[in-house]
């Protein structure tokens, strides 16, 4: 029994019954448009729902996952696992033990294809799976040039950021590292200003950030640890050239990262 009246949802699950590998064929995931809401449901123990979204402009997006108001809480059991993946199916962010409606933090990325994967959080038995519990997903995207673009946690793919401009960023996981590259055209001095968004919950900052400034050869110039509030560095005199700023968790294990 499939608790859905949506023809596309019905067709998808019928295809799953015919082709046992259908759920693993990510390229066949339902193509969804950003800023629209889509409903789905898991109808058996090892069911997996894939959604594919193309982000046409650089900026950021947020994922909203909503449990239908008519779902019986006891039927949710161990809940869902919801993952956001890039075009190469690398996990960007993963949410486990999802039993209620939630909205992800801001996820900043380049233009391209992304996937949302919805599956049982614990599928050792059909009794643990939220079978026939209707949920909805929505990817809200907003164009912006003021966000750090996630790369490879090193300087190989970091884009140059203009000086005297504010850029926003966020750490997605414990060992995430954000790099910023600046080109200073004249000899003089610079200051780095680090601020925390007003909407950040203080308890989520944990042990805070570690911020390091490097020269073009990645020699350390200045380091700030256990940053849990806004910081303005002292004046740093240096010749013209390329400089890097590295932002990472002060403690990057378990749940100590901001």
Low-confidence stretches: 1-25
Strand content: 35-45%
Spatial order of the strands in the main sheet? 1-3-9-5-6
The pLDDT mean sits at: 81
Q: Note the gap between the termini.
A: 43 Å
User: Helix segment count?
Assistant: 1
Features:
single chain, 258 residues, mainly beta, five-stranded mixed beta sheet, five-stranded antiparallel beta sheet, 1 helix, 40% strand, elongated
Describe the structure.
It is a single chain. By secondary structure, the chain is mostly beta strands. It is 5% helix and 40% strand. It has one helix at residues 7-18, and strands spanning 30-32, 37-40, 49-55, 59-67, 80-85, 91-98, 102-103, 107-109, 112-120, 135-143, 160-161, 177-184, 188-190, 193-194, 209-215, 220-227, 231-232, 236-238, 241-249. The strands form 5 sheets. A 5-stranded mixed beta sheet has the order 1-3-9-5-6, with no helix packed on it. The chain is elongated, with a radius of gyration of 22 Å. Residues 1-25 have low confidence and may be disordered.
Quick structural overview:
Helices cover about 5% and strands about 40% of the residues.
What topology does this entry show?
Blueprint lengths: L6 H12 L11 E3 L4 E4 L8 E7 L3 E9 L12 E6 L5 E8 L3 E2 L3 E3 L2 E9 L14 E9 L16 E2 L15 E8 L3 E3 L2 E2 L14 E7 L4 E8 L3 E2 L3 E3 L2 E9 L9
């Amino acid at each position: 029994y499939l608790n859905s009246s949506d023809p596309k949802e019905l067709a998808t699950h019928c295809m799953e019954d015919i082709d046992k590998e259908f759920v693993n064929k990510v390229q066949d995931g339902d193509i969804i448009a950003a800023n629209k809401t889509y409903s789905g449901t898991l109808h058996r123990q090892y069911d997996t729902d894939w959604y594919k979204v193309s982000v046409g402009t650089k900026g950021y997006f947020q994922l909203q996952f909503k449990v239908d108001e008519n779902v019986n809480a006891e039927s949710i059991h161990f809940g869902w696992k919801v993952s956001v993946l890039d075009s190469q199916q690398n996990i960007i962010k993963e949410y486990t033990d999802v039993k209620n409606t939630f909205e992800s933090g801001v996820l900043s990325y380049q233009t391209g294809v992304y996937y949302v994967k919805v599956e049982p959080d614990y599928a050792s038995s059909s009794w643990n799976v939220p079978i026939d519990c209707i949920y909805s997903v929505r990817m809200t995207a907003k164009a912006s040039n003021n966000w750090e673009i996630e790369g490879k946690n090193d300087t190989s793919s970091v884009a140059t950021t203009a000086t005297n401009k504010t850029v926003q960023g966020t750490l997605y996981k414990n060992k995430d590292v954000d790099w910023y590259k600046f080109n200073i055209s004249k000899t003089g001095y610079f200051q780095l200003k680090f601020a925390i968004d007003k909407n950040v919950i203080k308890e989520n900052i944990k042990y805070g950030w570690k911020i390091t400034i490097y020269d073009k050869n990645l020699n350390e110039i200045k380091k700030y640890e256990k940053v849990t509030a806004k910081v303005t560095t002292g004046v740093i005199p240096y010749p013209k050239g390329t400089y890097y700023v590295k932002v990472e968790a002060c403690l990057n294990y378990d749940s100590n990262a901001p």
